[in-house]
Amino acid sequence: MVQEIRNFINNEYVDGVSTFDDINPVDGSLIGNVHTADAAVVDKAVKAARTALEGPWGRMSTPERVNLLRKIADRIDERFEDLLQAEIADTGKPEGLARAVDVARASANFRSFADTVASAGLDSYLTEPANGDNALMYAVRKPLGVVGVIVPWNLPLLLLTWKVAPALATGNTVVVKPSEETPASATLLGEIMAEAGLPEGVYNVVHGYGDTGAHITSHPDVDGITFTGESKTGSIIMKTVSDRVLPVSFELGGKNAALVFDDCNVEEAVAGLTRSLYTNSGQVCMCTERVYIQRGIFDEVVDGLIESAKKLKLGAPFAEGTDFGPLISAKHREKVQSFCDLAEKNGAETLLGGGVPDMGAELNGGSWFEPTLWKGLAHEDEVMRKEVFGPVAGLIPFDTEEEAIHLANDTEYGLCASIWTQNLERAHRVAPKMNVGLSWVNTWYLRDLRAPFGGSGLSGIGREGGQHSFDFYTEPVNVAIKLG
Ligand code: NAD
Questions:
Q1: Got the DSSP string for 344-390?
Q2: Which residues does 377 contact at the CB level (< 8 Å), separation at least 6?
Q3: Which residues form the Aldehyde dehydrogenase domain (predicted)?
Q4: For this structure, is 251 an active site residue?
Q5: How far is the CA of 331 from the centre of ligand 1 (A)?
Q6: Nearest C-alpha to atom 23 of ligand 1 is from which residue?
Q7: 59 phi and psi angles, rounded to 5 deg
Q8: Which ligand 1 atom lies nearest to the CA of residue 254?
Q9: What digits encode the pLDDT tens for the residues 209-250?
Q10: CB-side exposure of 103: number of CA atoms within 13 Å?
Q11: CA of 304 to the centre of ligand 1 (A)
């Protein structure tokens, strides 16, 4: 059945000015008509968000807000299956992944940020200058106001709630734009939050392509932007908000490296690397696309990766044993294919994949792509320097620890790295030397929602998570009281 996916403003569905197609990447079928928000619809959403700040939401105490966030988390859990269906229809990802990661993290995000805010204290200082003008300083945290939340398609609900939960926990209101590829779960979340008792105007969703996002970032009454997506979009947004000097939090692309030392546990490294290369068909910002392997174990690791990748089961999301889904769209598949063609042109040996698999008549209309491995590329090649955001990786040998560190850090990006070694000293020596926001040792994508998350360089600005989110979504007002 083809659904109507409308904008959500003031806890009500709002028609757009036109519609565009929501396509299921599993088989290319039409699943929804999405209502595009033009400048006027975005303005309505921003006005609703502004008005809500003046209403019951703005007057709510922190404990009341924390309670409401916990109710939202409970309601998400109650409607888990609906969110799961929405997320899978839009993304085509395997049921097991969507269940364990995407939807599970939505309620976890609300609970975690409710805890952060519930236990937050105030910065305070007793100031005792030489002249005896003693004073008490304390910094009260105020919400930024109306926050524009713009998110991508790869982990739609997870990334959305990662931003919406702390924004609401700290008393802001939001205007959200999900990706044009994955509009459903953000819309359903609106309904769920209204059911949990969120006042009108606090959470608003507008749909559309980049233009709709630009209507948010250029709106004069938006107080801050939190964005996850491509580095080049981040750069455009930064220019747009620069005149108003708006606070921004950017979680952008990556070209993440893995360093595999000859003192690693090869079996565990291969298993971990397989996850880091192919989870969500390589469409996680933290996925590894550059694997540097110490020369003595190069062939062993390469053979292990080929064997392990061959075992991945491509299939429809609910089919038994599926652990690898399609890419998000035909357009994205063209991009991934173009990098594969370029790799071969640059002299790569394609060890596995590199093209479109035959999925049978029912699924061939989807945007499937094979798990891919290359060797023979040079570190300088474009394919090893630009983010592909697909199930591909280049395998390159190295000789020394210094060389490995240099190779990993020789990139414009700085999101994450993983280091595979059984040598404790090396682990502690190398991990902090990575120019990234997240440096893993013998693991990948191991997260704590209180820990800082984000990247440097082209991978972003700022950190979110726990106290870091609290800092971004609030503005401190330092009060100084003279004590005499
Ligand atoms: P994208 O930048 O194309 O789109 C992201 C969002 O921005 C979408 O909602 C899109 O409609 C909107 N947008 C596009 N142009 C805009 C503009 N001019 N103004 C305002 N909004 C605009 O990214 P994508 O293809 O959806 O997502 C994939 C990218 O996201 C990859 O680069 C990936 O690495 C990155 N990502 C990063 C993280 C992280 O935490 N660092 C997490 C997930 C994804």
A1: HHTT-EEEE--S-----TTTTTS-----EEEES--TTSGGGTS---S
A2: 343, 346, 347, 348, 383, 384, 394, 396
A3: 18-476
A4: yes
A5: 15
A6: 229
A7: -95, -5
A8: 34
A9: 999 999 999 999 999 999 999 999 999 999 999 999 999 999
A10: 28
A11: 33
The pLDDT of residue 119 is above 90: yes
Pocket test for ligand 1, best of 150, 161, 447 (most atoms within 8 A of CB): 150
In this structure, the residue with its CA closest to atom 40 of ligand 1 is 251
Q: What average pLDDT does the segment 185-198 reach?
A: 98
Q: What is the CATH number of domain 256-441?
A: 3.40.309.10
Record: fold of 3-252+459-482: Aldehyde Dehydrogenase; Chain A, domain 1 (3.40.605)
Mean pLDDT over 6-32 rounds to: 98
- 1 falls in which pLDDT band (50, 70, 90)? confident
User: For residue 283, what are the contacts with CB-CB under 8 A and spacing of at least 6?
Assistant: 154, 327, 328, 389, 390
**Amino acid identity at 301:** V
The predicted pLDDT at position 147 comes to: 98
Give 270-291 pLDDT, tens digit per residue: 999 999 999 999 999 999 999 9
Per-residue pLDDT tens over the stretch 460-477: 999 999 999 999 999 999
What local confidence, expressed as pLDDT, does residue 126 receive? 97
d(CA 478, CA 471): 14
Q: Whose CA is nearest to atom 34 of ligand 1?
A: 253
Residue in 154, 155, 249, 250 to alter for ligand 1 test, most ligand atoms within 8 A of Cβ: 154
**Residues with Cβ within 6 A of ligand 1?**
150-154, 159, 177, 179-180, 209-210, 213-214, 217, 228-230, 233, 236-237, 251-254, 285, 387, 389, 415, 455, 459-460
- pLDDT at residue 484 greater than cutoff 90: no
Give the list of residues 6+ apart from residue 351 with CB closer than 8 angstroms, or none: 302, 306, 373, 374, 375, 395
Average pLDDT of the segment spanning 375-404: 97
Q: Where are the domains of the chain?
A: 3-252+459-482, 256-441
Domains 3-252+459-482 and 256-441 share a fold: no
What atom of ligand 1 comes closest to residue 152's alpha carbon? Answer: 26
DSSP of 439-461: EEES-SS---TTS-B--SGGGEE
76-115: pLDDT as tens digits: 999 999 999 999 999 999 999 999 999 999 999 999 999 9
Angle at 330 between CA 325 and CA 331, to 5 degrees: 125
